[in-house]
Amino acid sequence: MGRALPQEEGAMFLSPRTCLVCHEAKQENLKKCSGCPYATFCSAHPSSCSHDQVCSMINDKYEFQTRLSKLKLSTAAAIQAIVNSTTVHKSLKLPTSVADYLYRYAQTPVTIPEDVKIHTSIYFTKSLTLFNALQKLNYNPRLKMVVYIVAQFTPFHVSVYWEVLLHLLPKLINLKIILFEPPEDLKYTINVCEKCRSKKKTLTLEFVSTSFVEYVKSKSHTKADFVALYNYDPLQEENLFVNTSCKVVKNFDFITCPLLLTTVTEKKAMAASERLRSNLKNCEICYAGKNDFAPIKPEVDWETEGISIPNQFLMVMKPRES
Ligand SMILES: [Zn+2]
Ligand SMILES: [Zn+2]
Ligand SMILES: [Zn+2]
């Protein structure tokens, strides 16, 4: 397939062994955390308050990953099975949250273990948050929809969660997701399910290596119908991904379509809203508040060693009608 499939998780457990508090590296002075396989402490620092708060959750994640690797069912296969079981019935109320989608709406035929199902919510939060934003705008995509995903690392092998949009939006035939993810230009057509194939529906993923701003300024670019910025962090400018999103926010004049933006915390949501109000004069905020389609369980934030819920706050904007 050309693109190296990113190791789903797991890699995050392989941090170099140093004391979590003082970063002492002499192996003979170090002891592993008694609660999880991730942290190491020196004799002077037998534990740390911040780690204690997340230790058991980290251990749960670790044990889940170990269990998942032994199961015959991969995350990608679970996502595929859930997507395949998603059909729109007139009698069925549309999903109102990721949990509602997974437990009530998707009538998965194969038994997917509870924890695997919960685990997939971290992926479905992306496609379903977009679905949520479309609904908030009363936006009914026609045959074709092009979505830019800005500044978001996307494990490619599980990307089939985007297909859920082809199921929930019956009129949508061609969905193209454009991701700005250097270093190489790549294009994939995802193998959609039989139902989608019979309706000639397609799902294309395109990775663009040029920067977002360069891309939207180039003559040959594909115009977007929707732009999504997940987990935007206005408080952290130096981060490469964040920088990209800041540029998007500052260059929204190039985009003449609706935009969704999510943040991890309320504080970041407030800062984002302030920035948007001053930078996006030509656009109105249609929704700002809690995102009903946040993942079911919090994630371990490996940078801060805390826990956080991605996509927790949502803002939906559209260009002002002139
Ligand atoms: Zn130490
Ligand atoms: Zn621990
Ligand atoms: Zn399908």
The percent of residues in helical segments reads 25-40%
Order of secondary-structure elements = EEHHHHEHEEHEHEHEHEEEE
Strand pairing plus helix content: what structural class? Answer: alpha/beta
Task: Please state how the strands of the largest beta sheet are arranged side by side.
Answer: 5-6-4-3-7-8-12-9
CATH topology of the largest domain: Rossmann fold
Radius of gyration: 21 Å
* Basic shape: globular
Uncertain runs are: 1-14
Structure, described:
By secondary structure, the protein is an alpha/beta fold. It has 2 domains: 11-69, no CATH class; 75-319, Rossmann fold (3-Layer(aba) Sandwich). Helix content is 32%, strand content 19%. The protein is built from 9 helices and 12 strands. It has helices at residues 49-70, 75-84, 98-105, 114-136, 164-168, 194-198, 212-217, 240-250, 266-279, and strands at 30-32, 40-42, 144-150, 174-180, 186-189, 202-208, 226-229, 259-263, 283-290, 299-301, 306-308, 313-319. Strands 5-6-4-3-7-8-12-9 form an 8-stranded mixed sheet. Strands 1-2 form a two-stranded antiparallel sheet. A two-stranded antiparallel sheet has the order 10-11. A hairpin with a 7-residue loop joins strand 1 (30-32) and strand 2 (40-42). The radius of gyration is 21 Å and the shape is globular. The termini are far apart. The relative contact order is 0.12. The model is unreliable at 1-14 (pLDDT under 50). The structure holds zinc ion (3 copies). One zinc ion binds at residues 19, 21-22, 24, 42, 44-45. The site of one zinc ion has 8 residues, from helix 1.
